[in-house]
Design a protein that fits this description.
The structure holds two protein chains of two kinds. Chain A is mainly alpha-helical. In chain A, about 80% of the residues lie in helices and about 0% in strands. Chain A has helices at about 1-15, 20-40, 45-60, 70-90, 100-105, 110-130, 135-145, 150-155, 160-189. The longest helix of chain A is centred in the C-terminal third of the chain and has 28 residues, at about 160-190. By secondary structure, chain B is mainly alpha-helical. The longest helix of chain B is centred in the last third of the chain and has 22 residues, at about 230-250. Chain B is elongated and about 85 Å long. The chains are: A mainly alpha, B mainly alpha. Chains A and B meet through helix 2, helix 3, helix 6, helix 7 and helix 9 of A and helix 1, helix 3 and helix 4 of B.
């Protein structure tokens, strides 16, 4: 409860263009927005670009933000979702190859071998996610990558909780099949 | 039945995320409740495991700095007072705006009579008379059409803010507010006059910098991007002039040092700002300013503010406008 009150206070200050408050919101949500974008576009640099754009767009739109049961993170991810759509509408994504991303996206916080394994795993997950429908991708990434509740996801994508659960159910079913296939392909090489 | 599985699934996801349970443990406990439960839980657990991807830290910090710069610009573009004024100006027809301004001036003149005049003139932020003082200033500026005079009035207002802030301690909230107000007035003066293209504006700013160098160095930190070049130039000129003076005086330059013990550090600060090098705010890194005997830091409403500059100029402008 205190967290929500505190967050509302920060957002109110950010609406008056308080740079400290905006800095706090950035620190709280940048990684989450980045993760969402990363699993939507499959490229670290593009995801960083999109995450950066999300906060610049948020700066433009924040005076109109109102607390109507929509969590702030859901509002940010809605902006991110629109930017991802713009990204796919442009021809830019055609030049980005997920395979080539593997070396670029090595996690610099761990040793190289560990990072390579993790990145390989991520690449498989991204490929599997890309095989889902747009709505399924949204739900799966928000629920399990961005750690949002069903209610928060429902708010972010303008659907009811029942629809979110149904999308999640179908998406996980598809993912388990696709990941199983990728796993089998990898082992047979 | 479906709902029961969903709840158990969500519980397991939460426990796995918090490292309270492993996937295997959940499967051992609930794997039999639904044939789809196991594969779905494994897929979800794999997604959670993949969620530890992080952005490049350097890139993240660069984006943060860029964002905060945009926030600062936005803040200046839509400053609280100006935001209200702009919004009003857009919606109000011009004849109504003129009448409104005339009305404000009429009311202000009516209000500013007798003792109210004296009280408002000497008032400081926090005083009930201070808003009257500001309202009159704004009305006077608003009614001035000539850009040169308007710019001069903004600079007078900035000078008045400087006189006011010298009566507060640096850590006082009013001090910080007045720094911003000074920066805003200087920015507006520059904007009206054409800034660096206007020699009169530059000379006035140089003169202000000569008299209030330390304060303007603090103002520089708070200034909007549009006002920074002019301020930096004026402060650099002062620093250069002081240096020349010191050189020509030889050892006698010690007299200057006695007056402003921090001048060396401050000059260094200005050079860094000019070269684009980011430095922490002077108010954070520098020792407190040496108090000036003629302008005490604590508010003394009974004592008149610095004579000669602001109200005197205002009366001069009154004459010229009429």
């Amino acid at each position: 409860m205190d967290d929500i009150v505190n967050l509302k206070n920060i957002v109110e200050r950010a609406k008056n263009y308080d740079s400290e408050a905006f800095g706090q919101l950035y620190d709280m949500y940048f990684d989450k927005v980045f993760r969402y974008a990363y699993y939507r576009v499959g490229n670290r640099h593009e995801a960083e670009d999109i995450a950066e754009q999300v906060f610049l767009k948020a700066l433009e739109s924040i005076p109109g933000f109102e607390w109507r049961g929509i969590p702030f993170s859901a509002w940010l991810l809605r902006i991110a979702s629109n930017l991802v759509i713009d990204y796919y509408r442009s021809n830019k994504y055609k030049t980005v190859d997920i395979e080539e991303e593997t070396n670029l996206a090595l996690d610099d916080s761990h040793d190289p071998e560990y990072s390579a394994i993790r990145e390989f795993d991520r690449k498989e997950v991204i490929k599997a996610i890309m095989s889902l429908t747009e709505d399924q991708q949204q739900v799966i990434i928000m629920r399990f990558i961005a750690d949002m509740t069903n209610e928060e996801v429902a708010n972010a994508i303008d659907k009811n909780v029942g629809a979110v659960k149904a999308l999640q159910h179908r998406a996980l079913g598809s993912l388990s099949r696709v990941l199983g296939e990728i796993y089998n392909e990898t082992r047979s090489r | 039945m479906r709902r029961g599985v969903d709840e158990i699934f969500d519980e397991c996801i939460k426990a796995i995320r918090n490292n309270e349970k492993t996937v295997e443990k959940c499967l051992g406990e609930y794997g039999e409740i639904d044939p789809e439960f196991g594969p779905m839980l494994m897929a979800a657990a794999r997604l959670i495991k993949s969620a530890d991807v992080a952005p490049n830290m350097e890139r993240k910090q660069q984006a943060r700095a860029k964002l905060l710069e945009s926030v600062e610009r936005k803040q200046w573009e839509s400053g609280v007072g100006r935001k209200a004024q702009k919004g009003h100006a857009v919606k109000t027809p011009r004849w109504r705006a003129v009448l409104l301004r005339a009305g404000v001036v009429a009311v202000a003149i009516a209000v500013l009579s007798g003792t109210t005049v004296a009280l408002a003139r000497e008032s400081l932020p926090g005083s009930p008379f201070y808003p009257v003082k500001i309202a009159v200033e704004k009305a006077r500026i608003g009614l001035t059409i000539d850009k040169g005079k308007k710019s001069k009035l903004y600079l007078n207002a900035a000078q008045e803010r400087i006189s006011e802030l010298k009566r507060f301690k640096q850590n006082d909230v009013h001090y910080q507010y007045l720094l911003r107000a000074t920066a805003e007035d200087i920015a507006l003066a520059g904007g009206v006059s054409g800034g660096s293209h206007n020699r009169e504006f530059e000379e006035s700013l140089d003169d202000m910098a000569q008299k209030n160098r330390e304060v303007l160095e603090d103002v520089l930190e708070k200034a909007p991007p549009s006002a920074k070049p002019a301020l930096q130039r004026a402060l650099t000129n002062v620093t250069r002039d002081k240096g020349k003076k010191k050189d020509s005086n030889g050892d006698n330059g010690a007299e200057d040092n006695n007056k402003e013990p921090n001048s060396g550090n401050k000059s260094e600060e200005i050079k860094k700002v000019n070269s684009g090098e980011r430095t922490p705010s002077p108010s954070k890194v520098m020792p407190p300013k040496t108090p000036e005997p003629s302008t005490p830091k604590t508010p003394e409403p009974s004592e008149p503010s610095e004579p000669g500059n602001y109200w005197q100029n205002k009366h001069e402008n009154d004459g010229s406008e009429n």
